[in-house]
Amino acid sequence: MPPNSIAHVWTGGMNTMASYTSRGIQAIYSSCWPNAGAASERLWSDVSQTQDANAAWPRFHEHRCRMLSRGYQVQVPNAPDFCPDYWDPPSFF
Questions:
Q1: Is residue 17, in this structure, part of any structural domain at all?
Q2: How far apart are the first and last CA of the chain?
Q3: Among candidates 4, 18, 26, which has minimal Cα distance to 75?
Q4: I need a labelling partner for 21 at 20 to 30 A (CA). Which of 2, 9, 32, 78 fits?
């Protein structure tokens, strides 16, 4: 295949997560997201940007803040963490 063709640069991967709580979909959003997000960052970002965790962290942090602003209750991937927009999560319990 010629270099830089779609088939040449295509990368695939899979990440399997399981949760044994009764919280349902919220368990996936809150606890499984950081692990699956790390795998996604590694698969879909440029290789040169995923060799150093300090270089990848700002993108990962920004994505978490976007998810929070859209109402997903996701945990912090690496505490402490702070998003510039205040978010007051709804109580489901």
A1: no
A2: 55
A3: 26
A4: 78
Cα 7 to Cα 24: distance, rounded to the nearest angstrom? 37
Write the pLDDT tens digit of every residue in 38-83.
Answer: 777 777 777 787 788 787 778 878 888 888 888 877 777 666 666 7
pLDDT tens readout for residues 10-45: 556 777 766 666 666 776 677 777 777 777 777 777
Burial 20-54 (b: 16+ CB within 10 A, else e): eeeeeebbbbbebbeeebbeebbeeeeeeebeeee
Amino acid letter, residue 10: W
Closest to 72 (Cα-Cα) out of 35, 30, 41, 43: 30
For residue 54, give its domain range: 24-84
63 found inside a domain: yes
Number of domains in the chain: 1
Instruction: Give me Rg for the CA atoms of the chain.
Output: 16
